Amino acid sequence: MRLNGKVCLITGSGSGIGKGSALRFAQEGAIVIINDLDRAKGQETVDEIKQRGGSATFIPGDVTSPAEMEAMAQAALQTFGRVDVLFNNAGISGVGALHELELEQWDKVMRVNIAGVFLPSKYLLPSMMARKSGCIINMSSCIAEIGLARRASYAASKGAVLALTKSMQVDYAPYGIRVNALLPGTIFTPFVENYLKNSYDDPEKAIEAIKSRQLSGELGRPEDVANAALFLASDEAGFMMGSPLYIDGGVTFG
Ligand code: NAD
Predict the structure, then answer these.
(1) How far is the CA of 42 from the centre of ligand 1 (A)?
(2) Which label site among 16, 26, 188, 205 has the fewest CB atoms less than 10 Å from its CB?
(3) Portion of the chain with pLDDT greater than 70, in percent
(4) Residue 201 lies inside a defined structural domain of this protein
(5) Could you tell me the residue range of the domain that residue 84 belongs to?
(6) Per residue in 95-114, pLDDT tens?
(7) Average pLDDT across the chain, whole number
(8) Is 190 a pocket residue for ligand 1 (Cβ < 6 Å)?
(9) Ligand 1 atom at shortest distance from the alpha carbon of 116
(10) Ligand 1: which of 17, 114, 194, 251 to mutate, most ligand atoms within 8 Å of CB?
(11) Is residue 168 exposed (0-12), middle (13-18) or buried (19+ Cβ within 10 Å)?
(12) pLDDT one-digit tens code per residue, 154-172
């Protein structure tokens, strides 16, 4: 098993890619710590992992709250003694061209998508540095590399996550910590379903348009990103440092 006995904390793992990754990590022998704002969804992921014979525990918390993220790190370290892998996955969408946005909308996307990487990392890095070992996976998006209509705040936030990943890697390489980023294309999750519902009169037509942009001709599935996250979390990716990993059906370079 590729993550046997590794303690892996995944933020926003009550749904979508985070949930898919939690199930996949558990299948590979990880002890998974589920974090989410939504207690019911977080608990559902834990229950599903346990039903399949895996190991999981839920620590609720908002990735934008310093107090809650410090408490989450303390609880994880008290219970398991270490966190081997931190997957900063939680994120929200933001729709609108720049002139259409209010500062509050802009700030909210930045807070969840960027501070939501900063805070869990801030409170877990000291223990990784002390152990001279650790792996951090940050959720960016292929939108960090390609222009898409009316996604100004979301694109800016995911570009920042990519830049932050590279900067973190330089700072923490001396401590034996790897920091890499995932850049998914369009993955069919509740996040995308809601975005399509709220942004288009005909979501089905929008899905067809997105599919036609991808070389794969299909939208991605949470499992596609989960498999890439699994690779980054495993020792197989030991030589990957500060790298962007694209799981995008060819939309970025195709
Ligand atoms: P999702 O909406 O299905 O799941 C996100 C989860 O994060 C939810 O359970 C939600 O409750 C949780 N969450 C939101 N805000 C939180 C907070 N402040 N604190 C803790 N938990 C919080 O979304 P998804 O599609 O699985 O997306 C997961 C990540 O992948 C996001 O960062 C997203 O930007 C990124 N991403 C998604 C796609 C895609 O097409 N789905 C593409 C590229 C990147």
Answers:
(1) 13
(2) 205
(3) 100
(4) yes
(5) 7-247
(6) 999 999 999 999 999 999 99
(7) 97
(8) yes
(9) 18
(10) 17
(11) buried
(12) 999 999 999 999 999 999 9
Please, which residues bridge with residue 220 across strands? 187
| Of 52, 63, 53, 77, residue with least CA distance to 18 | 63
Pocket probe mutation, ligand 1, options 23, 38, 191, max atoms within 8 Å of Cβ: 191
198 has pLDDT over 90: no
Q: Is the pLDDT of residue 199 over 90?
A: no
List alpha helices for 132-245, DSSP H: 152-172, 190-199, 203-213, 222-233
Would 2 be classed as within a structural domain? no
Contact between residue 69 and residue 120 where contact means Cβ atoms under 8 Å apart: yes
Q: What is the CATH number of the domain that holds 225?
A: 3.40.50.720
**Do the domain assignments include residue 65?**
yes
Q: Tell me if 142 is assigned to some domain.
A: yes
Overall domain count for the chain: 1
Q: Determine how many CB atoms are found less than 10 A away from the CB of residue 142.
A: 21
Angle (deg, nearest 10), helices 190-199 and 203-213? 120
Q: In which order are the strands placed within the sheet that holds 55-58?
A: 55-58, 31-34, 7-10, 85-88, 134-139, 177-184, 244-247
Q: What are phi and psi of 138, to 5 degrees?
A: -105, 135
Rounded to an integer, the average pLDDT of 234-254 is 97
Q: What is the pLDDT of residues 33-61, one digit of tens each?
A: 999 999 999 999 999 999 999 999 999 99
| 8-state DSSP, 185 | -
- Active-site positions? 154
| Residue 213 pLDDT class (50, 70, 90 cuts) | confident
**Dist CA 137 CA 244 (whole Å):** 10
